[in-house]
Design a protein that fits this description.
Layout lengths: L6 E2 L6 E5 L3 H8 L2 H7 L3 E4 L8 H10 L4 E6 L1 H14 L2 E6 L5 H5 L17 E11 L2 E3 L2 E5 H7 L7 H15 L5 E5 L2 E4 L3 E6 L21 E6 L4 H10 L5 E6 L3 E5 L3 E6 L2 E6 L2 E15 L19 E2 L1
Parallel strand pairs: 2-3, 2-4, 4-5, 5-17
Antiparallel strand pairs: 1-6, 6-7, 6-17, 8-11, 8-15, 9-10, 9-14, 11-12, 12-13, 13-18, 14-17, 15-16
Helix pairs in contact: 3-4, 6-7, 7-8
Length: about 325
């Protein structure tokens, strides 16, 4: 994530951190996130998985009680829920990469090997303004997927081996043409009958056709769109393994992207979480909607490239 436009943080007086103790195999406990956050003056909410909990409501209550920063130690799905509240209340947001993959944290340049290092943002940090994606009324920090991509999220192996699971599942799924008939509309362009669709908060790099890797930036104001239709399982597997973009429709667009289907409710993967969304699903991007605090010194600072030029629809088939 680029440092352009970043400013030094001034310190939160009443930070509030939501901690998922189970996420990432217990990373929050191993790195003593709760204890270190308390030492820095943060109030905490520890997720109890034995009880039904509305984390967005927890975050809103914390703001009503005076919290001036919201943070999450957990995976991308939990990050998105609380990031939405931070954005709507205009508060800074702290990302603690205590999940399994932490793609949002990766693109922010955070240290995923030591999630506790993200707490340095409270004392020596900078503020970045990044985009948020919306699928209907739901926020996503990474992507929302449909068709074959959504089927990946249902597989138990997906969290620990995304690429391997994609190579194993996608070829057969695409060849059988399972699931609802999809139509994707982005501005003047219509893609009929894709078997897999992924809409991302900023486009993935061109050498990442499956949407499993990095985004060059998080503040371009563009949605990324990948729509795939396969001819044979063997061809699909070869393309995934080689990283070739052939056989895909790839877009980078500031326009609203609408995913239509011949069913009233569409299975989807929202930041790696299985959800169901009413159709048609209207996806949009909210430019620079989220204020993220990150450590001033972090491994990925300034290492990602930047997309240049004015926002435009671009297509690769």
């Amino acid at each position: 994530m680029t440092e352009k436009g970043a400013r030094l943080t001034t310190g939160a007086r009443r930070p509030y951190l939501i901690v998922n103790p189970r996420s990432g195999g217990g990373k929050a406990s191993r790195f003593r996130i709760a204890e270190r956050a308390r030492a820095l003056g943060s109030r905490l909410f520890l997720i109890d998985h034995s009880l039904p909990q509305d984390l967005a409501a927890v975050a809103r209550r914390a703001v009503d009680d005076g919290a001036d920063l919201l943070g999450v130690a957990g995976g991308d799905g939990t990050q998105a829920l609380v990031a939405e509240v931070a954005a709507e209340r205009g508060l800074p947001f702290l990302v603690i990469p205590a999940g399994t993959r932490n793609h949002f944290a990766m693109d922010l340049g955070l240290d995923r090997e030591d999630p506790s290092a993200a707490l340095e943002a409270l004392t020596d940090g900078v503020e970045l303004h990044v985009d948020l994606g919306y699928a209907g009324q739901r926020v996503f920090v990474n992507n929302v997927s449909f068709g074959a991509y959504a089927a990946l999220v249902q597989d138990p192996a997906y969290r620990d081996d995304k690429l391997g699971t994609a190579v194993r599942i996608l070829p057969g799924f695409l060849a059988r043409h399972e699931g609802p008939e999809l139509v994707v509309r982005a501005g003047p362009l219509t893609v009929d009958g894709p078997d897999a669709v992924l809409v991302s908060n900023n486009p993935y790099q061109v050498d990442d056709p499956a949407g499993l890797g990095r985004r060059a930036r998080l503040d371009s104001g563009l949605l990324g769109v990948l729509a795939a239709r396969a001819e044979t399982p063997a061809e699909t597997a070869v393309r995934l393994r080689s990283g070739q973009p052939h056989g895909l429709t790839r877009l980078a667009t500031p326009d609203v992207v609408v995913v239509c289907a011949d069913v009233p409710v569409l299975p989807a993967g929202l930041d790696g979480e299985a959800v169901s969304l009413p159709t048609p699903v209207r996806c949009r991007i909210s430019p620079r909607a989220l204020r993220v605090w990150v450590p001033r010194h972090r491994p990925g600072a300034g290492t990602s490239g930047r997309l240049r030029g004015r926002p435009a629809v671009r297509r690769v088939v």
